[in-house]
């Protein structure tokens, strides 16, 4: 037999034909599956949960507008899982998300909800979801919120897509989380100001930053603000970072010093470290600044707004493709789908080259 001028045996032709049929069947089934999922999903609920993060509003806007653009109804759920449990759910039109892209915080409000951690609480949430005709959820939040989403999705076989919204940048499988870049810029802005007084008074400053159990904000904040060191939980158990710091030369080449400390109990926190310095190295004049919730507020940076807009629209695409139990992530600027099980693993590695760089540059 001759195909495109090439002779093939009947047996090879049959094999080739079989493969084409299998491939076509696969494509048709996948398409049918995604069309039937789309037919099932008419209304999408959106909520923000856990710690607020700058850029959450941009994500709510993108989810709402992309959903409406694709013919879905949208329900806004207030106060995260609390609003699901207590039935604080309203229909969202495109105007509900006008003029919000530049605001920090979340127009949907957020909360930490103990009741959602119980079977009874989640049952109430499911009943309200049914009452409002919601067929799929988009959850914007950190690892706790996505753990809750995973639990709920598996218990009720319900489609949920997550969007990483947290300043901590601690979700695995995504290079960035929404809010992280803005928080980093805020930290840099604050440290620049503290540097003026640190150098005028020739003091050692410990500046404590957030991050829960992760050191991303401390490490990258230290690089961005030219700090001497970052004391982070990923390293703390291995070495006495304070001892290393003192050994490496405070007061040898400089008279003032800025050290960023991740808030984790593993590092001892800025207060704990300052206490140690007062006892063990009384020759140093030490001061502490805890940046606290200052880091979570403010207008989101362009990078966070763009990331949130892309991720919000991608969440709707994912639902239309029949995806569920995944978080939208970014990998080298590309949108990817990360299973919830991976996203919440708490094993995102810090870049050890950055520690090395910090060390080199703080001579
Ligand atoms: P974040 O999302 O910023 O990490 P939290 O850890 O406080 O914030 O989690 C937000 C909410 O997610 C919690 O208040 C709770 O309602 C819900 N949640 C967290 N973990 C679980 C879980 N294992 N099961 C059910 N719900 C959870
Ligand atoms: O997860 C975001 C975060 O800001 C963490 O960095 C911090 O540990 C925690 O939330 C603080 O939570 P709260 O606002 O409830 O004190």
Give me the secondary-structure topology:
Blueprint: E1 2-3, E2 6-7, H1 10-40, E3 43-48, H2 56-69, E4 73-77, H3 80-85, E5 89-92, H4 119-131, E6 136-141, H5 143-156, E7 160-164, H6 180-201, E8 204-209, H7 216-225, E9 229-231, H8 241-247, E10 257-262, H9 269-280, E11 286-290, H10 302-320, E12 326-331, E13 334-339, H11 340-343, H12 352-361
Parallel strand pairs: 3-4, 3-6, 6-7, 7-12, 8-10, 8-11, 9-10
Antiparallel strand pairs: 1-2, 4-5, 12-13
Give a verbal description of the structure:
The chain has 363 residues and is an alpha/beta fold. The chain has a seven-stranded mixed beta sheet with strand order 5-4-3-6-7-12-13, with helices on both faces. It has a four-stranded parallel beta sheet with strand order 9-10-8-11, sandwiched between helices. It has a two-stranded antiparallel ribbon with strand order 1-2. A hairpin with a 2-residue loop joins strand 12 (326-331) and strand 13. Helices cover 45% and strands 17% of the residues. The chain has helices at residues 10-40, 56-69, 80-85, 119-131, 143-156, 180-201, 216-225, 241-247, 269-280, 302-320, 340-343, 352-361, and strands at residues 2-3, 6-7, 43-48, 73-77, 89-92, 136-141, 160-164, 204-209, 229-231, 257-262, 286-290, 326-331, 334-339. Helix 2 (56-69) runs parallel beside helix 10 (302-320), helix 6 (180-201) packs across helix 7 and helix 7 runs parallel beside helix 12. Bound molecules: adenosine-5'-diphosphate and 6-O-phosphono-beta-D-fructofuranose. Residues 51, 142, 166-168, 210-212, 263, 296 line the site of 6-O-phosphono-beta-D-fructofuranose (F6P).
């Amino acid at each position: 037999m001759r195909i495109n001028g090439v002779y093939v045996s009947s047996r090879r032709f049959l094999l080739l034909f079989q493969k084409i049929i299998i491939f076509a069947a696969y494509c048709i089934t996948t398409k049918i599956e995604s069309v039937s999922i789309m037919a099932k999903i008419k209304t999408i609920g959106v909520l923000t949960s856990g710690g607020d993060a700058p850029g959450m509003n941009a994500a709510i806007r993108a989810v709402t507008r992309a959903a409406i653009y694709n013919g879905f109804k949208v329900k806004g759920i207030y106060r995260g899982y609390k609003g699901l449990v207590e039935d604080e759910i309203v229909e969202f039109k495109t105007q509900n998300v006008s003029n919000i892209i530049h605001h920090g915080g979340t127009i949907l409000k957020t909360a930490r909800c103990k009741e959602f951690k119980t079977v009874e609480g989640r049952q109430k949430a499911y009943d309200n979801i049914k009452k409002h005709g919601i067929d799929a959820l988009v959850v914007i939040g950190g690892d706790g919120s996505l753990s809750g989403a995973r639990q709920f999705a598996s218990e009720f076989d319900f489609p949920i897509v997550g969007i990483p919204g947290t300043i901590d940048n601690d979700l695995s499988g995504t290079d960035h989380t929404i809010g992280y870049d803005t928080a980093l810029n805020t930290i840099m802005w604050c440290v620049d100001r503290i540097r003026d007084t640190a150098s005028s008074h020739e003091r050692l400053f410990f500046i404590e930053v957030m991050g829960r159990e992760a050191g991303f904000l401390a490490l990258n904040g230290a690089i961005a603000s030219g700090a001497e060191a970052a004391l982070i939980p990923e390293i703390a158990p291995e070495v006495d970072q304070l001892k290393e710091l003192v050994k490496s030369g405070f007061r040898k080449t400089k008279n003032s010093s800025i050290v960023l400390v991740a808030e984790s109990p593993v590092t001892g926190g800025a207060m704990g470290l300052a206490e140690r310095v007062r006892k063990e190295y009384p020759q140093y004049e030490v001061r502490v600044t805890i940046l606290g919730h200052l880091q979570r507020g403010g207008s989101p940076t362009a990078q966070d707004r763009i990331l949130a807009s892309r991720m919000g629209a991608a969440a709707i695409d994912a639902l239309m493709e029949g995806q569920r139990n995944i978080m939208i992530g970014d990998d080298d600027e590309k949108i990817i789908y990360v299973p919830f099980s991976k996203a919440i693993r708490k094993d995102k590695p810090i870049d050890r080259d950055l520690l090395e760089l910090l060390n080199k540059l703080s001579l």
